[in-house]
Structure formats: C-alpha cells, structure tokens
C-alpha cells in the first residue's frame, strides 16, 4: 500500500526564530514537510502561489500586508489551501477577522508542540480547530458576551481591554501596575501593548501615549484599593460633655 503524500506546509512569520522552531518541529514528523517560508503577507501570497501548500501557518501582525489580508488573498488564488493562524493575539477583533478571511484554525503562540502538530493535521483534513482560549472567546461571543464598541469611543479598532490598557499607559502606569489593576498577567499586558502598537501604527510607548492623550485618554485610572473607612470623629472634650441627667 502506497503511503499518503506528506502534508505540505508554508510557514509565514516575520520572526526568524519562530520560523526556525516550526521548521525543526515539522522536520521531526514523517507526514508533514515544509515547502516554503515567508516573512510578510505579500511574500506569503507569492510563495503560496508557487508552492501550492496544503496548509499555511500564518502569523497575523507583520510588516507589509498583514496575515488577515494574506489569508484572504491566498484562499482566493489557491483555493485548495488551508490557513492555520498561529499568533500572539487572541482579542475578539483578531480572531473574528481571521475567521472572516477564511482561516480554518487559530492557535495562540505558546501552544504546546503536540497541539500545533494536531492542528496542522486537522486543518489539512478539512477540520476547523481552535485553541482553548480562542474557543472560549468564540463561545462567549455567540452567547452574547461580546459587546460592540460605542461609535464615539476613541480608537474603535481596539478591544475594550486594549482601550483599558492604553488608558493606563497614558496615565503613566508601568506594565506591572497595569497587570495588578486589571488582574491579568504581565505577559498578557505585553501582548495587549503589542496589539495596540500595531493597530495604532505607532513605534513605541511614547508615541502611543501622545496619541492616547490627544484622544482624551489617560485622565482616569482603573479602580484602586478601596479607601480606608472613615475615622470616627474625636470624642467630645470634657467641657462639651452633657451634664448628668440631660
């Protein structure tokens, strides 16, 4: 019996170390092979047309064309290809933009190697697969847990959480303080900040602060610890004590 052809994979990520790690992981498998790499969305589209892979492992935020636009272009020109998003962003906008573009799977960087391998094989077989945190967001969205951003909010491309983080950045808060105030991990704060920089198209924190303050953010902060109970009024002096029997 002839062995099935290996699953042909194109790796798209602007970080060379990430591409190298995925390439090494895939090299250890007998039924998957790397047929190309790309560092941005435009290059990914060209490589997909040349290599015609079964699966594209796609980052979302890259120089040039982003992963969402690249996904849409690849699926239009190479319709037999499947796209598995592997990114550090798990906000609602990123997840649903990738799904609308036609992605068949969505994992967050930091996923275990066996989870990535399983996702590659599942997507190649025509299944849709999502990491646990992404799946919870999808369920919450369809259960009515997601809310539209009011039209008059600044930076409508940001999620509610990203806007909270930006507000605290504009107020001069450090990452560790933001994490404590929002009860999230410092790594999650860093991920949100990276997403904010990409969406606002700013290069650094200082530029983000300027944009945020121009939009009116940074004047309020997340609730701090509850204030101490009011101290009781001092006892009346002896001269003010009522006389017995009053």
UniProtKB/TrEMBL annotation:
This is Response regulator. The keyword Glycosyltransferase does not apply. InterPro entries: CheY-like_superfamily (IPR011006), NreC/VraR/RcsB-like_REC (IPR058245), Sig_transdc_resp-reg_C-effctor (IPR016032), Sig_transdc_resp-reg_receiver (IPR001789), Tscrpt_reg_LuxR_C (IPR000792), WalR-like (IPR039420). Residues 216-246 are annotated as: Disordered. Pfam families: GerE, Response_reg. Residues 8-124 form the Response regulatory domain. It comes from the Bacteria. Residues 224-235 have a biased composition (Pro residues). It comes from Sphaerisporangium dianthi. Residues 236-246 have a biased composition (Low complexity). The lineage of its organism: Bacteria, Bacillati, Actinomycetota, Actinomycetes, Streptosporangiales. The modification 4-aspartylphosphate is found at residue 59. Keywords: DNA-binding, Phosphoprotein, Transcription, Transcription regulation. Residues 151-216 form the HTH luxR-type domain. The keyword tRNA-binding does not apply.
